[in-house]
Specification:
The complex is a heterodimer of chains A (224) and B (110). Chain A is 83% helix and 0% strand. Classes of the chains: A mainly alpha (224), B alpha+beta (110).
Chain lengths: 224, 110
């Protein structure tokens, strides 16, 4: 007696043995198999024949795995690069919002003090511009970056940028402490240094991410 | 039956054009292609999924898990902005091929 669920279980085992990963894409393929079995059964075939034809129609596990493998290999590196870019942008935005903002707003909205109204407006505007650059450099810089089709130099540049971020953070933490900035007599230069710490991280971090995105876009256009 | 190479080359433009009508899932895409081609365009069903995943990795399409009418999990695909651009490029290029072929065919009967 033919047992459809057992046959599907065996089919799943074959797919897993060939290296097709669960849950994705195995779930997707199984759903497809079940829908095809249902369609064939409705058109009058018995369950066993419907299963056999649907399984044949879906293709052999090693061939499917070969095709899926082509996508997964570069995707892993791409995911790491994109995640690193995201971490840089999130760190930079966090710095702007939780470290710079309290200082900027304390300066701008404290009654009295040595700063005039225009200087206070410029202080807030400078901070807002730094936040905007931080956010947009990560999201849109790929439109300005060249599409480097060779993945090795592209990723080398990306990783160099991330390494640059770490070095920059180290430099800011140990060589550019707040006291140095406070001692700079020019107020706006001090503010520029204070906020650019985070902008540099966002821009450098965004380059690795942006180069991947620019290359993806170019590849999509070439393949189209 | 249409040759394997042509079937492979047409997979991406067909998927993009079908998804331009609205989100869909693997099985429905295959059924629609079969129906529209009168069964002449035959894919090995499973081979559609690596193509869909590759297109997703290239940010042409995006996916989400949903449920079918019977409660079964189903992965729906929809077009992204870059996918729309890629689709218009495909249409442009296939139109050129088609018009060259049509022109040459016409000349043969003159």
């Amino acid at each position: 007696m033919f047992d459809l669920e057992q046959a599907i279980l065996d089919w799943r085992r074959q797919m897993l043995a060939a290296g097709i990963q669960a849950p994705v894409p195995l779930e997707e393929l199984e759903n497809h198999l079940r829908e095809e079995i249902e369609r064939r059964a409705k058109s009058g075939l018995n369950e066993q024949d419907a299963y056999k034809m649907a399984a044949r129609q879906i293709g052999r596990a090693p061939e499917l795995e070969k095709e899926f493998k082509k996508i997964n290999a570069p995707m892993e590196i791409q995911k790491v690069i994109k995640l690193a870019g995201f971490i840089c942008a999130a760190t930079a935005l966090g710095g702007q919002l939780f470290i710079c903002a309290p200082v900027v707003f304390a300066i701008a909205f404290t009654p009295g003090g040595s700063l005039g109204l225009i200087a206070r407006v410029f202080t807030v505007a400078g901070w807002a511009i730094a936040v905007a650059i931080t956010m947009f450099s990560w999201k849109y810089n790929h439109q300005l970056l060249p599409a480097i089709r060779n993945p090795r130099p592209r990723r080398a540049i990306g990783f160099a940028c991330y390494a640059g971020c770490l070095l920059w953070i180290r430099f800011v933490l140990f060589h550019l402490p707040g006291s140095v900035i406070e001692n700079i007599s020019l107020f706006f230069l001090a503010q520029f240094l204070f906020e650019s710490e985070w902008v540099v991280i966002a821009v450098l971090g965004g380059i690795g991410h942006g180069l991947e995105k620019a290359a993806c876009r170019q590849k999509a256009m070439v393949n189209s | 039956m249409i040759r394997k190479e042509l079937v492979a080359a047409s997979a991406e433009p067909l998927i993009l054009s079908l998804l331009a009508k609205g989100e869909s899932y693997g099985y429905a895409i295959i059924q629609e292609v079969k129906a529209r081609s009168g069964g002449k365009l035959q894919w090995t069903d499973g081979m559609l999924y690596p193509v869909l995943h590759r297109m997703e990795a290239r940010a042409l399409i995006k996916s989400r898990w949903g449920e079918s009418e019977t409660g079964r999990k189903r992965k729906y695909y929809s077009l992204k902005k870059d996918g729309k651009l890629a689709m218009s490029k495909h249409h442009e290029q296939w139109s050129v091929v088609q018009s060259v072929l049509a022109g040459l065919q016409k000349e043969q009967y003159v």
